[in-house]
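Standup notes
- DV: blocked on the single-chain target, sequence here:
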Amino acid sequence: AYEMATVTEITPYDRLPQITLDGVLPVDAGGLKFSYSTEFVRFERDLRKGMFTDEDGATSPWYDTRIPGLARANGNRIHVEPGVSLPLDWSYGFIKPSVKYLYTQYDLDLDQQGKNTLLAGQEFNSSEDRSVPIFSVDSGLYFDRNTELFGNQYKQTLEPRLFYL
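- DV (later): unblocked, structure below
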């Protein structure tokens, strides 16, 4: 037999502290726009230990004691996302090419129960990272014309847009 634990029965991660810093650098270098997004966050959950007594008086171990392997990990995450774009605008349309670099680094720790319950072939690495370059182009055109409908004058617009990521 087995038991299904619902999400509300397992202690969620706390995200404390979480520090986020986003912005655009006030530099005008030939129309280039420099942006950044950074985040530092500590993911931690205080897994409950021991037993609890339910409303019927039955005693059972906390569901947290049954969480195995990597699901017991706590750690820090640092995310850095610098970017540069060149927005070009005209009366008939726009184009905005941009380049970003996403870097995320994790520093994890795992308690002894988590290490003892790793699945076969599963390894614990206390430091993981990823690097992802991103290139995108956002572009669009503006088509306007005056039109009349039921004796009223209107301006009809059509704005097709193409976004490549």
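- Follow-up: The mean pLDDT is 90.
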